[in-house]
Amino acid sequence: MANTKRELFLKRRLRTRNKIKAMANGRARLSVHRSSKNISVQLIDDLNGVTLAAASTLEKGLGFVGKNNIEAATKVGATIAERAKKAGVEDVYFDRGGFLFHGKIKALADAAREGGLKF
User: Fold this and answer.
1) Is residue 54 a part of any domain in this protein?
2) Has residue 104 been placed in a domain?
3) What is the mean pLDDT of residues 25-48?
4) Over the stretch 66-99, which tens digit does the pLDDT of each residue have?
5) Which of 16-20, 38-42, 72-76 has the lowest mean pLDDT?
6) Transmembrane ranges (predicted)?
7) CATH value at residue 72
8) How many domains does the chain have?
9) What is the residue-averaged pLDDT of the chain?
């Protein structure tokens, strides 16, 4: 029986997340979610189960100009790096979820690295 696209996505997401949690050693996880119109990112402390910082294109000033906007993802990446520094976090694990590492996800990751996050 063939798996649906959604089932394959969920398998990829869980496989990625479980590998990251196994290697974490107390480091925070930078979790990304991308929809067709928006992108959001959270900095999560899995030991305590709390969100340390978050950023999204739904916030004022970070929104998309049009569909598939890589510039907005870059703004979100720079914003999360700035907020992570304020929270005292530099070393993180990048959790792309089930999304492929290209396009908006890659732009967000590159901007976060330029902002000072190490992963």
Assistant:
1) yes
2) yes
3) 90
4) 666 899 999 999 999 999 999 999 999 999 888 8
5) 16-20
6) none
7) 3.30.420.100
8) 1
9) 89
Burial 72-88 (b: 16+ CB within 10 A, else e): bbbbbbbbbbbbbeeee
Q: Say how far apart CA 53 and CA 20 lie, in whole Å.
A: 19
- Helix extents (H) in the chain: 5-23, 70-87, 104-114
Residue 60 structural domain: 5-114
Please give the C-alpha separations between residue 59 and each of 9, 15, 72, in angstroms, as whole numbers. 27, 30, 11
Encoding tokens for residue 104? 């908006």
Q: What is the pTM of this model?
A: 0.85
In whole angstroms, give the CA distance from residue 2 to residue 24.
Answer: 33
